[in-house]
Amino acid sequence: MVKNGIYIKTEGTELHIPIYDKITVITGDSATGKTKMMGFLKACKNARKNNTKIESSIDINDILLVSDEDMLKMIIEKNESEKIIFIDRFNNVYSEELLTFMNDSRNIFIIIGHRNISELTSQDAVLAMQCDGNNYYCEQIYKNGILHPIERV
Q1: What is the block-wise mean pLDDT of the chain (153 residues), using blocks of 10 residues?
Q2: DSSP letter string over 82-131?
């Protein structure tokens, strides 16, 4: 499903997210592009329906976007599998049921939040969001177990 990461390109915008583990955490201060990235992903899903040209390392139809508890409950109840599930504002939807689903399913999870939630995954899979206007990319916060300072663009 995802080998070296997620790459999506539309006219004028690119997204790069390296994937190191089943659960990837994207963190960052306000105004670093996390919510804007979710909007870009939603636009890509809609653009695909309209046959807009999108270059991608993944099938856009495999992306599920979660922004509230109701959407999350529906995904858990449907027992979605082999999807790439982006969960925005993770701190608002966190539950034991979600953790069980994340551990037991065959999905890739991209967790988005303001604070570092590194206890959910390996340190290599904790990323900081960067956005330079139209391009989104993520950098590892830890490299070889050492906190790596990220310079804001």
Answers
A1: 82 90 86 86 82 87 91 92 91 82 93 74 84 86 69 52
A2: S-EEEETTHHHH--HHHHHHHHHSS-EEEEEESS--GGGS-GGGEEEEEE
